[in-house]
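Q: My labmate handed me this sequence with no annotations at all. I'd like to see what the chain might look like in three dimensions before we decide whether it's worth expressing. Could you predict it?
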Amino acid sequence: MPRRLIAAVDSALEADPDARPRASALAADLRNSLRTSPAREPRAPREKRSPATDAPANALARRFAPIGLAVVAAALGATLLPFWPPALVIAIALGAGLATWLDPRIGLAVALAAPVFPLGNYAESAALLYGVFALAWLALSWRDARWGLLFVCGPLLASAGLLALVPLVVQPARGSARRAAQAGVAVLSALLVAGVAGKTVPLVNRPVESLGIGPLDPVGDTALTVWVTLVAYPVVLAGVAAAAVAAGVLPWAQRRSRYGVAVVGAVLTAAAIATGAGVTSTIVLVLAWTVAAAVAAALHRAG
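A: Here is what I predict for the chain of 303 residues:
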């Protein structure tokens, strides 16, 4: 650039000597030419990446599955002990579903409150103990209220002999602690529902004995009675611990190895067979865990 400027000035001087520029103007032009850098081509604007959208099936599941959980949880809680008339049971269940549709936190609170009056009609201390649990559970699930009732899967799966699927079903819950708590409470709720209904207790395959809680028993005595009853079923406590641990480690197992989910499923299926799982339920367990392991292996490979 400076050479071309000097050549242009020389040619202008030869053509017209009177057109000689001032020294200061010439120096300024030279300085400007040295400072000027080649023009850069403007960069093409980056395309804004739109957030990934979920598949319609996943969106529908996230929207309607919590409503179904609230309806089932409220119905089970309202019918746990005889108290509400059938029409009111239906109203409570539908109200829990509607509340969940409007606000999952309100729906969670309504569903958890359904057993309070039936328990209070049986024993005030039992209602107070459950109230403490319900408040603690509401606090634990407050930031994940949409999936706060996943533990309802426990009684439903236990009725089909599929309690070993609990750790898999509670995976939508956020955080390892919530998943573990959901799985453990799922097994305990299966025990509670079976005991109240007079059915065989899951994992031990024998009827539960009466708790023997009186209407006027203090809260301390009632809590001690419940604990002694649980201790009388060590296999159930082991199942609670196993379900909680499996639910908590499943995501880690999937990330760690492509066979991690398969190993967890195999251990739980073997435990179910050892505790008396039937042929049909065993086949379903094997198929469900095989599908889950295959999906987890594909995700691990893709990651």
